[in-house]
Model the fold of this input.
Amino acid sequence: MTILVIGCGSGLGKEIFRLLKKEKKDVQGFSSLNSKNLNYLNLKSLNLNKLKKQINSIKDLNEVYYLSNLSKHESFLKISENNFNKFINFNILNFAKFLQVLLKKNEKITINIILSHICFMHNYGFSIYRSHKLFQKNLLQSIQIECPKIKVNYIYPGAIKTNFVKNNKYSGKSIFKPKDPKIIAKLIIKK
Done:
């Protein structure tokens, strides 16, 4: 049984990948960050043929953790056209392409989609981020009707101390203190 972790170059994805490896699971990691220790998957400009080859080369693939996202804490009206297009392509179009390739390989796969507590909130500056997370959730819910053999775990890990949070400099009040990604990864793996 092979487990695939998409978005394991940093933060929570990196910790999930590390824990699965530590448990001696057959795990492959893909990141849009170029690293000698990971398979490079360019989600910024996804090549569908290359993706098909990469996915089809994985034997006995039956579980995926999907954590990859590209976003910025910024007012909807201030997002540049270039960034707007990058966010939509990366988080929506490429996610849908990835799912189609994945499900054509194995309709009985388990997908662990890491969503966000932002899905339940309407915070300033998170319009694009929130929208793409809700798109991912809604697409998977629709696909579950078409492909009833897949299993989807919708995971809302809460606030996490990651580069995403630091880089976005989000200064809003939080009910929950951000947790260390190592702690959250352990809880997710135990699911």
